[in-house]
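User: Here's a structure from my thesis project, written as structure tokens. My advisor, Dr. K., wants to see whether a designed sequence matches the one we expressed. Can you design one independently, without my sequence as a hint?
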């Protein structure tokens, strides 16, 4: 007998590492044994599990640092094992806190107190908000400057062609001394026709036509020929005979008066030449960007001049570079003599300049073109990759799975790090262990190895592998529906849409969580009443009792209680889907609160996540977890570790019939997929203008943004209204499990309740779905989050602007803070600009600068209307705007083929100022608002920012945490204790019983009354009408043993193994050709079996048939050998008013014929509780189950060695059963049934 409080749990804040699995030889699944074999379809049976460390698998890497670190734990007493939570947050200085103080130095605490900001945390949140807004303004200013100010700052005079006018560009221009002159109004001269010259080459140099003398060039003082050669024949020096020809120079001297007389105007623009034009023009060369027309010099000096370095350089360039740009800059700057000649040459022979842009204009143009290329590349890539994913990649994800005949690891095998015994060679969970579980309660007994009790074939009992064909294409799926204050129509529509999906009811479990005893605004019933009213409750569970669990909250709110209702949801199309409803009812001291039991949506999700995490790792369970475990097992016929995926749906969402199957097929197609979401459409799109502007936004966010992210496998936000997560994933060789959603690091970080900074609060309190996606991507960066367009749902969008404002405030702030964390994850898919990290960075910057972008867009449109673009560079911003807005319209047409969506796009574009300015600015200014605002209103609600209660400190010792085997041992003890109490009362009160007419005192919720009507008066159980005083079944155990009664109140008051109710369904079909199959029966024989039933009397155990040994069964076993109906339970029957099950008429008036034979009861330890396996569709025969719990024709047990006791798989009494006979030695049970000794 264990000592009192021997299994008191460790506190919930224990930081002890999880135990690691020891490697034991060949008793593990060895990856080498899973070599693909096309002929066999998988590895041979008998493969073992072997796990080893590796540096290449994502789940083996070092876990990232938590986003929200828990507060440091301090111990008041070093010898005490229970840590104490600090009373306040840690306000140690860090760089972010110092920066926030530096930014808000102008607002001391005294000033903030004048405006009502008095709490220290509130002041810090305000400072961080101002700092974040300042950062947003700075980023917006940078984007605005880069868009409109950079060009004017670096190129103040405008574009380069405003300084230069390219040769040949303007037909009514000519150039003089490098400047462009307009000749459109010029007078035609007798010897010079300006129009004819301009027609030959617009802008050509006519400087040589004007009269010039040596006195006009003071820079030319030497006697060298380049400086002294006459330019005109009339101005030549007398006595100087030139060897060449001098020009006539018919026009007057260069002066402003001459220009006025000729009526030509100087435009002040420089004549620009390209390098190609300089190369094509004879006698032109370039020195330091200045174009020189050397035609007068060459005409006057046709022959080379000896010992003249300048003449040699000029002729060398003109003769050797006739096909190039004739750049003589380096040649002239190499020697001092040629370099000194440059001022004279420039003044005498200047024709123009090379048409070039300034460095500032070049940088501005480079930035503009680079931005154009990057943005267009991103937009076009997103568009193209989204189309590819929608058309090709997603179609392969929804195909039915193949190769299901292969062997794989059994769901009952726990992953590495789970709590197990060192002797557990198979690595299976204790609830799947028949041999070890039967030892519970015995000295020295502990569940250390297992064979799945859910496997029909007992020959596979001790093997950790199974054929995946037994699970089939439909995985066991949980459909989580979180409810808060929704109305009956919303909740019923959501639940019935899940139940009506074309997914087997035997493979889906609807899990509804009611977040507190809450009545929505305008509703007549509370949300729990609405949900429970839809449930066809299973009567075996009775009225549930509140069970404690550790919730998400602060102080006293850290503890909560919930009631579990179990039954079925019957949809309109005939589906009968197993359902459990978790109603968070709160602690007794919350009875006067407005929202008792309310802890938020994240807490509702964590009830499921914590439960499956503890099931996966065999971790310590709360009373609520153990109660859920029992009810799920009875409803589904399998233990919860068989569930692999969970679909999370909001209570105002209706899913399409094919959606669940599509999502599961996607999970089956790729084991690396850890999350997948479907398309969410708006159900009330025409309700108001607010809903109309959201239609296009919903569509484009899925089919463009999420489809593009799916190519990288990194969807940054799986919407909480319709997403599926993987609970645990099989490895590539199907030889091990990798926990995903239930990984302890993920659950621990997602369940944080102590948050102190504004960043942490925005992560945790505003967007649970995005925060969960962020944690998954940080923990498993090489796994995939996908979007599946084939899976669809409809949800109710906000129809008033106030609700939309509140919703988008939460979404925008949550998006910014989560992207800030994702951009730091370096090992996401891709590299540099083609990486998911770059895409996240672009999304983060784009979200922050939304207000500036819409302002720039408006300015661009107005400026383009006033001043239309004249050049390509001026049209670049308009091209970007057209690409950003136009490509989504094309995507709509090619994906939906519905022109109506173009109209929804126009509604969205008209509301762009709301989307890009009003909503972001409002969200930024409310960075420190962590409430849900107007999204969900509750009758009489008082606004609260968090689920906490600072008046109390939760020390983690009020909620018992025990492993499953400990809870199960206590459950068995409780049943025996109740049996002893009943017998004790029978000794004192006789045969009148003590349960009462209503059976309210029954340990199973009063539902044993379905056996009434046999021997005693009304309300008496069958054992109450026994003959005699029961001296043969005395019990010397203590009725009120305090040692055994420690955990009794934490266990549900029902017995799921009660024989009065139908057995659980068959969770898995019998094995295929590789397993043990039964005899094939015809239709007539099958009908006869249905009439007579399938259960047979259990054989006498071999230990009981020993000669000379007497057998006196324990009193507890007498309950299993009572009068039972001959005709087995009919699923189409209904309970009668007396508690029985209606069906055929019977002499006792309870719809059932009774016979006096001992029948083994269904128990929760085995998923196979029916006599036959279900018939396959289209089959004309059925198989008689050979792996069940009955007996074979030779009287031997069908299961071989070891049978379950009457209390289930963990009953510690192996001596169960007997042979029925009418007379002989034995004891009576009050109805004429005798048990053989």
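Assistant: Designed independently from the structure alone:
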């Amino acid at each position: 007998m264990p000592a009192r409080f021997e299994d008191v749990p460790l506190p919930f804040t224990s930081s002890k590492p999880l135990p690691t699995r020891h490697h034991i030889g060949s008793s593990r699944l060895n990856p080498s044994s899973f070599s693909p074999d096309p002929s066999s379809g998988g590895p041979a049976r008998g493969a073992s599990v072997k796990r080893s460390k590796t540096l290449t698998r994502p789940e083996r890497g070092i876990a990232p640092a938590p986003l929200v670190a828990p507060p440091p734990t301090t111990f008041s007493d070093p010898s005490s094992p229970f840590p104490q939570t600090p009373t306040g947050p840690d306000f140690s200085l860090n760089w972010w806190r110092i920066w926030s103080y530096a930014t808000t130095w102008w607002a001391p605490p005294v000033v903030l107190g004048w405006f009502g900001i008095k709490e220290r945390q509130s002041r810090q949140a305000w400072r961080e908000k101002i700092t974040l807004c300042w950062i947003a303004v700075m980023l917006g200013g940078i984007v605005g400057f880069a868009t409109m100010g950079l060009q004017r700052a670096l190129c103040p005079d405008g574009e380069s062609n405003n300084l230069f006018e390219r040769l040949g560009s303007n037909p009514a221009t000519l150039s003089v001394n490098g400047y462009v002159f307009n000749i459109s109004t010029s007078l035609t001269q007798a010897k010079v026709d300006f129009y004819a010259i301009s027609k030959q080459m617009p802008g050509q140099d006519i400087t040589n036509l004007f009269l010039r003398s040596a006195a006009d060039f003071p820079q030319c003082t030497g006697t060298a020929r380049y400086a002294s050669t006459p330019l005109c024949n009339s101005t030549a020096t007398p006595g100087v005979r030139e060897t060449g020809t001098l020009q006539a120079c018919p026009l007057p001297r260069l002066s402003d008066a001459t220009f006025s007389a000729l009526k030509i105007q100087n435009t002040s623009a420089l004549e620009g030449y390209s390098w190609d034009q300089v190369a094509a023009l004879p006698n032109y060369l370039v020195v330091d960007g200045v174009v020189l027309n050397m035609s007068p010099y060459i005409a006057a000096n046709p022959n080379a001049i000896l010992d003249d370095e300048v003449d040699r350089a000029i002729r060398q360039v003109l003769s050797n570079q006739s096909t190039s740009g004739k750049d003589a800059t380096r040649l002239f700057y190499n020697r001092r003599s040629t370099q000194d000649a440059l001022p004279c040459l420039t003044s005498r022979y200047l024709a123009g300049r090379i048409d070039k842009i300034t460095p500032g204009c070049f940088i501005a143009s480079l930035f503009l073109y680079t931005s154009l290329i990057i943005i267009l590349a991103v937009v076009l890539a997103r568009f193209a990759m989204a189309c590819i994913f929608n058309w090709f990649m997603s179609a392969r994800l929804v195909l039915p799975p193949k190769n299901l005949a292969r062997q794989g690891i059994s769901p009952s095998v726990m992953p590495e790090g789970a709590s197990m015994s060192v002797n557990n060679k198979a690595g299976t969970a204790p609830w799947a262990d028949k041999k070890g579980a039967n030892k519970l309660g015995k000295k020295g007994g502990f569940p250390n190895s297992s064979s799945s009790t859910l496997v029909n074939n007992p020959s596979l009992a001790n093997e950790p592998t199974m054929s995946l064909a037994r699970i089939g294409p439909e995985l066991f799926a949980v459909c989580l529906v979180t409810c808060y204050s929704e109305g009956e129509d919303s909740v019923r529509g959501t639940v019935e849409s899940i139940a009506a999906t074309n997914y087997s009811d035997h493979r889906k479990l609807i899990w509804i969580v009611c977040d507190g005893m809450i009545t929505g605004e305008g509703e007549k019933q509370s949300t729990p009443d609405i949900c429970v009213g839809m449930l066809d409750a299973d009567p075996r569970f009775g009225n549930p009792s509140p069970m404690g669990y550790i919730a998400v909250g602060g102080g006293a709110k850290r503890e909560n209680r919930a009631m579990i209702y179990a039954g079925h949801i019957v949809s309109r199309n005939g589906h009968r889907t197993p359902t459990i409803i978790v109603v968070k009812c709160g602690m007794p001291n919350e009875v006067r609160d407005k929202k008792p039991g309310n802890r938020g949506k994240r807490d509702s999700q964590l009830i499921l996540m914590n439960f499956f995490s503890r099931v996966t790792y065999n971790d310590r369970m709360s009373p609520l977890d153990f109660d859920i475990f029992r009810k799920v097992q009875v409803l589904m016929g399998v233990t919860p570790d068989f569930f692999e995926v969970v679909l999370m749906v909001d209570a105002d969402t209706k899913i399409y019939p094919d959606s669940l199957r599509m999502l599961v097929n996607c999970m089956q197609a790729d084991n690396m997929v850890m999350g997948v979401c479907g398309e969410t459409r708006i159900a009330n799109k025409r309700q108001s203008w607010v809903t109309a502007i959201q239609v296009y936004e919903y569509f484009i966010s899925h089919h463009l943004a999420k489809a593009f992210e799916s190519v990288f496998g990194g969807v940054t936000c799986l919407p909480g209204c319709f997403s599926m997560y993987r609970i645990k994933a099989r490895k590539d060789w199907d030889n091990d499990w990798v926990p995903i959603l239930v990984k302890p690091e993920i659950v621990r970080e997602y369940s944080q309740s102590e948050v102190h900074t504004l960043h942490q609060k925005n992560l945790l309190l505003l967007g649970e779905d995005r925060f969960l996606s962020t944690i998954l991507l940080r923990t498993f960066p090489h796994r995939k989050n996908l979007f599946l367009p084939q899976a669809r749902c409809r949800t109710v969008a906000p129809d008033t602007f106030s609700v939309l404002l509140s919703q988008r405030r939460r979404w925008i702030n949550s998006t910014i803070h989560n992207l800030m964390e994702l951009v730091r994850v370096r090992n996401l898919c891709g590299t540099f600009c083609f990486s998911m990290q770059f895409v996240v960075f672009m999304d983060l910057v784009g979200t922050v600068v939304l207000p500036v972008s819409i302002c720039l867009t408006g300015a661009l449109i107005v400026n383009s209307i006033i001043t239309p673009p004249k050049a390509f560079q001026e049209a670049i911003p308009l091209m970007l705007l057209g690409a950003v807005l136009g490509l989504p319209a094309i995507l709509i047409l090619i994906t939906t083929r519905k022109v109506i969506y173009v109209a929804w796009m126009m509604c969205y574009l008209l509301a762009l100022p709301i989307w890009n300015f009003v909503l972001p600015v409002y969200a930024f200014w409310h960075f420190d608002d962590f409430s849900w605002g107007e999204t969900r209103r509750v009758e009489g609600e008082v606004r609260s920012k968090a689920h906490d209660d600072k008046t109390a400190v939760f020390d983690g010792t009020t909620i018992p945490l025990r492993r499953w085997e400990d809870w199960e041992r206590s459950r068995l003890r409780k049943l025996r204790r109740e049996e002893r109490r009943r017998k004790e009362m029978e000794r004192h009160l006789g045969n009148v019983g003590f349960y009462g007419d209503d059976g309210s005192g029954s340990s199973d919720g009063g539902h044993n009354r379905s056996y009434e009507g046999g021997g005693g008066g009304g309300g008496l159980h069958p054992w109450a009408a026994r003959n005699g005083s029961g001296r043969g079944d005395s019990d010397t155990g203590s009725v009120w043993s305090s040692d055994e009664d420690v955990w009794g109140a934490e266990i549900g008051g029902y017995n799921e193994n009660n024989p009065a109710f139908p057995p659980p369904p068959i969770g898995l079909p019998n094995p295929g050709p590789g397993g043990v199959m039964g005899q094939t029966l015809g239709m007539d024989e099958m009908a006869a079996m249905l009439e007579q039933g399938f259960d047979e009397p259990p054989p006498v155990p071999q230990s009981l048939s020993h000669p000379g040994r007497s057998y006196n069964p324990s009193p507890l076993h007498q309950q299993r050998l009572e009068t039972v109906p001959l005709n087995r339970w009919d699923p189409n029957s209904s309970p009668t008013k007396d508690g029985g099950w209606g069906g055929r008429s019977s002499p006792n008036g309870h719809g059932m014929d009774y016979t006096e034979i001992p029948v083994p009861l269904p128990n929760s330890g085995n998923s196979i509780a029916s006599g036959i396996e279900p018939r396959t569709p289209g089959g004309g025969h059925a198989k008689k189950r050979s792996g069940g719990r009955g007996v074979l024709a030779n009287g031997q047990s069908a299961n071989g060695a070891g049978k379950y006791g009457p209390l289930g798989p963990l009953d510690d009494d192996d001596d169960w059963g007997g042979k029925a006979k009418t007379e002989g030695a034995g004891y009576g049970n009050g109805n004429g049934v005798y048990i053989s000794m």
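When you compare it with your expressed construct, this may help: The mean pLDDT is 74.
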